[in-house]
Each structure stands twice: as structure tokens, then as C-alpha cells.
């Protein structure tokens, strides 16, 4: 039994199914078979020059997003200028500039090897030159480099420029929690949204199907449809057949989920390392999701509960992160070897850090200031395990004692 | 920085941390260190004889739950009669009755080998004899045996008896969706709740920490606190230091989640088998959670959205099920070998079946009757892949085309 819509769709797709996951690069240059999305987006008409895009950052996630964007600027010439600039922190590879390699070989051999990049993606080592004439800035650099980059851009960006931050997370200080998008807005005076989702970069780069969430609020000086960046424009900019985008308003929600999931992943690593199995890991994720929601509702009451359990940037990113990655690895190693977090990081991560270790401390300090540590038992226990050698076997009891999520 | 409550707790726990996960059998007979729970439950006083419990079913999950229950009846003598009956479908093991083995060796050598059972758990091969004098029946048999058992019990159960169903799921016919707990209520005339959670039986049997959800609504003839089964009594009956219980009202919510997760798990198996990776599996789980919520809201509007994203029986059970188990295995095998669902089942499951294959058909037929297949694109695509050989590579496009979850 098949309903009418389904029948039509099946007819259209079979027997010559034109879908090509995960080899969808086949149609990257020949038009997408995803008719509905395409036609919806074709309906957007601009009453101004097409938008010029610059991606700031060229690590594996930065380059992957730049690839996505440059594919779409080819696809929607009425909306976007074809050439996309990508600011690259200059490095020499076998004596050659990384930017020159990217611009001739069309691969980022250092950070995203073996992935072909569109020829309209132009690497540029000069930050200020790369943003010349840009209407949309896509920030995608490691968290710790953001302040320096923002400092360099101060006074150089026109106020009508719009931005999307692909950095996950927030900064927590004694004054409170600041979203990275708000930081960009405050420092540069431009409207900034965020992109976050269950997106392990290598899988997206290979065009394996995934989803993401883009969050953006129209600014007070929004110039109107066809004149300014809005949800439709952002969908056209980021959505690909292999990278399904949902655009929402809730910048705070997706940023909070993106940061706190790393703390939850540490908890999953502990119980996995102790050999407690799938039930225990699922329990940690459930409790973690609850605390993420509570954190959001407490400190960003404007964020929507649905964002956490319904968006790719919420529950899906939590699941992906808790099924592997740096935080899980470090925490498992701690459980198995009884080494502390910093020894485990040193042994496993070759000088890099597991973000959850930094975040759980920031979160603890902020909750302590608010006298609310007891209301976030999982976050608190993870902090106590990492920083005060609390025995991780006590995790279930601590969670039970400190208090259930809803009371 | 540690808050006051945390300090007290840490003092109490360290350095002689009395927790014993996963070896918590150490205190199973010596009193739990979980003071708060224990003292809360000790406050319940009965104005009647202690409740007598019978567990109906002795597979691996049945025996595991019987073990949990029998530990608690030892622990709360003022609430429960110590001896717990477990109805066992009689089998001969090397010429000996399975019930005799259980009652002398205190192990269910066939379905839960190497796990010691409490001596107050009494195996009984006679169904009617096993329920004599019982105040609470815990149903825990394979779905397909339920009708016959219920038939045998008809007219034999006093109306004031209460029941909990540990069977996952519901029956969907052309008339609609019936919860198994409602089926028990309708057939036997007794109030019935449900128990469901992220509970792989072998892990719970080994006393590795996990969580579960019990749902129960007070009946119209509820006799009052101290006289009848209520949420506190059920918490005392099922909660263990290694098995954390949350008791809620929403029987429909946990039953729906318990059934539909198996359909989602098939979807995860497909994308895993295609080699699409963690992002894709997380996307399927996200979409699946959304469709589970929508299904619940549509057909059981009294069920609460929070149950799905906040309870062990909701999001946690979904995550556990999608990280392994029969449904994922069969679907992966289909993707890798291009065999159909029934061939894959035959090759992998040795005559058993993957529940999602039955459920996705029942769900499709019901949604088709309601002309709503298009509103549940994941459920529909899984059905089309299993029953109509729809190419699974088309899954993302079908989901995109049939319509987003929220519009």
C-alpha cells in the first residue's frame, strides 16, 4: 500500500534512481536531482548584486565547509558570486605555499587530503584582502585563534556584512556565558549566526549524507527579502544533496548544545572505559541531554527546548560525539589506566586537547558562582572526576544523590 | 570549588567509597549505601499485608527482572512478601526440569547462565498456581506468547490485582494502535502499567549500572496510600543501586517509544551497512525520535513529549537499540549483501525475527489507513526498503521529499 505522494515519488526515482550517495560529486557540476529544494531556492530573486562569500579558516572543517559553499555559489549564480575566498593561515609544504597548492592542485593537501575542491574556491593568505567586498563571512577556525583574528578584523568590516560562526561552543567566564556568535557581533558590530550539527568533517568531505543546523536571527537593520541575508539565502548557501540543512532562529540553543556535548562525551568515555556497556552510555547521554536543556533554559531562556531534542545540532550531534572522538577516547583511557586527564591527553592527543576538559571546568566555575552545581549532577561529577580525582565508579551514586533533572 | 551539598557527599563517599558498581551484589544482602532512596522508601508504611509478587516469564529479560524484584522484596519486608514466584515454561535440561534447576542451583542455566539468583525467587511451572495470592503480576514473556497466557489467566485474576508489562511495544491493526498494557487491562480487567528502558538484559543481569522507566496510572478503584500499588511502591519494587528507576504516568509514551525504536534501528543499519558513517546514523536517530514523538502526539495525544526525549524508555533506549542488536544487524546485512530482509533474517537470526520488520509493516498499514504515510517519511522509507525493494541509497532523498518533521 502506497499513498499517492509516495507513488509519484517512487515513479520519479525508480528504476533510474538518479541519486548518487555517497558519490554525489557526480552531479555536483551537473545540477542536483533534488528538485524540490532546488526549485524552492531558485525562486529567491535578488534585488541587489549577488552576495560575495569569504570563508575564514582552512582546517579540515573549514575546508569542508568552504567546499560546500563553493559548490553552491556555482549552483545559484543569481544569488552568489561564483568565486569564494578562503583565508588560509600560510604554511610551507615541501617548500611550496599551501595557498598555491590549493589554488593549482585544488586540494588542501595538509588538512583535507584526497578531497577535490571546486576550482572557484580561492585560497588567500592575506586576511584583510580575503574579506574585501565580502557580504557574508563564514568563521571556521580553531576556538583559540578566534580572538586574534577578530582583533585583526576590527574596524575593517562594514556593518551590513553578515556572519556565520561554525565554531562550536561558548566562552564561560565569571561574568557568565557568552556565545561565540555574540562575541563576533560585539567585537565587529556585525550580525552573526551559527552552523552546528552531527558533522564529522571527513564524512561530510567525502559527501556521505549528513544533516546540520544553521541558526540566524534577522538583525534590526535587515533590509528585506532580496536585499539581505535571510533563512532562504542561508539554506541556498549551505544545503547540498549530501548535507541537509535546517535553518532556525535559535543561535543560543545550537551553540550551547555544541559546547556541552563534549562534557557528556567524557562521561560516556568513563562508563565505557569501566566496561559498563551500552545501557550505561545511553543513560549518560539521556542525563546529559537533560542537563543541556536545563542549562539552556536557565541561562538562555529564549532558547527553545525543541532545538535540543529535534535538531541535528542537538541530539544528533550529541549521539555522534558520544560514539567516538577525542573526549570519549581520553575518558576511556583514564578509566582503563587510572591516569589523570592531563596524562591521558598527553599520551593520546599529541599536544592537542579534548575540549570537554576545558568546558567542564568553565561550566563548573560558572555554576559554582550561581550556587547551582547540585542541579547539574552529571556536569559536576565529570568535573570532580577530571579535576579532583573523584573515583569514577561513584558516578551513578553522585548523579542519584545530587538530584534528578526534573523535580 | 565545591558547593556545600557536593562537599558533604564527597566526604561521605571518600576515601572509603562504598559504591560497588559493577560489583554491587556485594551489598545486595547487606543494605544499600544509597541512603536517600532507601530512607525515602522506608517511609512507605502499609496498612495491609505486604504485597505478593509473581513474575510471568523466565527468558533472559524475565529472569533478570525477577532477580531485581526478588532482591527488593528481601530489602523491604514491610512492603513485600519475601518469596517471589516466577512462572517458567517447563523444559527439560539434560533430563532435569528447568524449574528444579532454578530452585536448587539458583541459576537459570538455559536463559541467563552464570548469574546467581536470589534464593527467594521460586520457579513454578504451573501458571495458575504461580499467581495464587499475587497482588502484583509482572508480565515478561515474548510478545507472541502473550495472547495464550492471557487466555489462560482469564477469569482467574482478582480485579484488585495490579500488573506491569515489561513487553515492549504495541499491536497495530486496521482498527488502530493498542498498547500491550491496555490489552492486558481489557482482557483481564486489571490495571496495568509498563516498564521499559535502555536495558540490554545481560548488562542488567551483571549489575552494570543502567536506568529504566516505569509508567503506571492509578486506577479508578485505587484504595489509597498504604493500601494499594502506587508510584512509591513500584519504585521500591524495581529500583536497585545498579538499576535506577524513574516512575511516571505516561504508559502510552514509553510503550510507543519501545516499539518504534526498532523501525529506526533498521534505518541506522541501512546507512551503516552502506558505509555512510556516524553522521548518517545520528541523523536517522534524530529523524526517528521526531517521528516517534509525532506518532505519539497524533495517536495518543495524552502522552507527554518529555517522555520521548527525557526518559530512559525514550531517547536512551533508542540510542542503545541503534548502537547494536538484531534490527541493526539485519539491516546492515541487507545493505552489504543486497539480500532482502527475510533472507537476511534467515541467515543471521536462526529462526528468530527482527521486531522492526514486523513493526514497520504494521505502522505502514495503520498510517496508510489514516492517509498519513507522507508525514512519517523515515518509517515509510524503511517500510518501502523492506517490503518493496526500494533502493536504500534513496533514503535521504525520500526523507527530504516526503516532508520535514515540522512544517
UniProtKB/TrEMBL annotation, chains A, B:
<feature type="binding site">
    <location>
        <position position="89"/>
    </location>
    <ligand>
        <name>NAD(+)</name>
    </ligand>
</feature>
<feature type="binding site">
    <location>
        <position position="145"/>
    </location>
    <ligand>
        <name>NAD(+)</name>
    </ligand>
</feature>
<dbReference type="InterPro" id="IPR008927">
    <property type="entry name" value="6-PGluconate_DH-like_C_sf"/>
</dbReference>
<comment type="similarity">
    <text>Belongs to the NAD-dependent glycerol-3-phosphate dehydrogenase family.</text>
</comment>
<dbReference type="GO" id="GO:0005634">
    <property type="term" value="C:nucleus"/>
</dbReference>
<feature type="binding site">
    <location>
        <position position="201"/>
    </location>
    <ligand>
        <name>NAD(+)</name>
    </ligand>
</feature>
<feature type="binding site">
    <location>
        <position position="326"/>
    </location>
    <ligand>
        <name>NAD(+)</name>
    </ligand>
</feature>
<dbReference type="InterPro" id="IPR036291">
    <property type="entry name" value="NAD(P)-bd_dom_sf"/>
</dbReference>
<dbReference type="GO" id="GO:0141152">
    <property type="term" value="F:glycerol-3-phosphate dehydrogenase (NAD+) activity"/>
</dbReference>
<dbReference type="GO" id="GO:0042803">
    <property type="term" value="F:protein homodimerization activity"/>
</dbReference>
<protein>
    <recommendedName>
        <fullName>Glycerol-3-phosphate dehydrogenase [NAD(+)]</fullName>
        <ecNumber>1.1.1.8</ecNumber>
    </recommendedName>
</protein>
<dbReference type="InterPro" id="IPR011128">
    <property type="entry name" value="G3P_DH_NAD-dep_N"/>
</dbReference>
<dbReference type="InterPro" id="IPR006109">
    <property type="entry name" value="G3P_DH_NAD-dep_C"/>
</dbReference>
<dbReference type="GO" id="GO:0005829">
    <property type="term" value="C:cytosol"/>
</dbReference>
<feature type="domain" description="Glycerol-3-phosphate dehydrogenase NAD-dependent N-terminal">
    <location>
        <begin position="52"/>
        <end position="217"/>
    </location>
</feature>
<feature type="binding site">
    <location>
        <begin position="57"/>
        <end position="62"/>
    </location>
    <ligand>
        <name>NAD(+)</name>
    </ligand>
</feature>
<dbReference type="Pfam" id="PF01210">
    <property type="entry name" value="NAD_Gly3P_dh_N"/>
</dbReference>
<feature type="binding site">
    <location>
        <position position="355"/>
    </location>
    <ligand>
        <name>NAD(+)</name>
    </ligand>
</feature>
<dbReference type="GO" id="GO:0051287">
    <property type="term" value="F:NAD binding"/>
</dbReference>
<feature type="binding site">
    <location>
        <begin position="326"/>
        <end position="327"/>
    </location>
    <ligand>
        <name>substrate</name>
    </ligand>
</feature>
<feature type="active site" description="Proton acceptor">
    <location>
        <position position="261"/>
    </location>
</feature>
<keyword id="KW-0520">NAD</keyword>
<dbReference type="GO" id="GO:0005975">
    <property type="term" value="P:carbohydrate metabolic process"/>
</dbReference>
<dbReference type="GO" id="GO:0046168">
    <property type="term" value="P:glycerol-3-phosphate catabolic process"/>
</dbReference>
<dbReference type="InterPro" id="IPR017751">
    <property type="entry name" value="G3P_DH_NAD-dep_euk"/>
</dbReference>
<dbReference type="Pfam" id="PF07479">
    <property type="entry name" value="NAD_Gly3P_dh_C"/>
</dbReference>
<feature type="domain" description="Glycerol-3-phosphate dehydrogenase NAD-dependent C-terminal">
    <location>
        <begin position="250"/>
        <end position="393"/>
    </location>
</feature>
<feature type="binding site">
    <location>
        <position position="168"/>
    </location>
    <ligand>
        <name>substrate</name>
    </ligand>
</feature>
<dbReference type="InterPro" id="IPR006168">
    <property type="entry name" value="G3P_DH_NAD-dep"/>
</dbReference>
<dbReference type="InterPro" id="IPR013328">
    <property type="entry name" value="6PGD_dom2"/>
</dbReference>
<keyword id="KW-0560">Oxidoreductase</keyword>
